Amino acid sequence: MPREAEKIDFEIIHHLPNQLGECPVWDDRENLLYWVDIKARQILRHDPSSEKTDSVDVPGRPGMLALCEDGGLVIAQERGLQRFSFEEGLQEFLVQVEPKDNEKVRINDSKVDRGGRLWLSSMADPSIPGEKHGNLFCWDGTSPVLKIAGPLGVGNGMAFAEDGETFWYADTHARTVWKCRMNPENGSLVEKEVFAEYFSEAGRPDGACIDAEGFYWVAVVDGWRLDRFSPDGRLDRSLAVPFQKPSCPGFGGENLSQLYVTSISQGSSTPLEPDQPDAGKLIALEPGCQGVKEPRMKQWNSMI
To answer: Taking the complete model, does pTM exceed 0.85, yes or no?
Structure first.
């Protein structure tokens, strides 16, 4: 049974269920929320001022998106990265992350670190518990993509502290979150330790973010909740969500006080329980704390 979690009010932001909603990112310049529906192959954008949501179809599965310093987005297209804007659609191809011909895998999760580098994870799709086909990568925008860790079952849960050195990532199938210290000069991992494990109860770690107090928020897929951990790994709080499969939290809105949460309605490695009218929807909570601005990717050269 899922852990008993605190129930607070929530608002449904996008009523049309996503198949596999992921990667909510708040653009603090434009006051817009972006996210992806991986299985439906869509990039979505919500404007809270008008309550309007737009979507654009893309040819490949967009496992992640990230903001760019000069505007627009970097998005995944299967195993590579491409520039994207809602006005112009797909633009230049940037870099190949996983081999182009390895159709077993796709890019899955991402975060930009405080130095403007893009971190990415990959996974097999469909994923098979017990098998490891994914990896963790870092790209500074100008050099070849650097493999940081692997193999992983489902790379997930990335977040960066404001100190520029503390970094978290997870393997959903391994039910583990690690806390690392990285070299801010080149992105290499200096230290790594187990931060949280999900072996004794329902739920596994999925997407993540941090708040302004330096606490780590993680979506507990199959656990009907979000967990908040202190920087030293103490479970501080659990918040209930109205779906079995929350996939990723992200702060946004005025003063970064809203916590947006994407979810899954199909296409997961575990079955969906019945009677979930809100499965796949995007919601917003007000947890009583603020987030931090998402860093933007600072530079890139096309690596074709």
So the answer is: yes
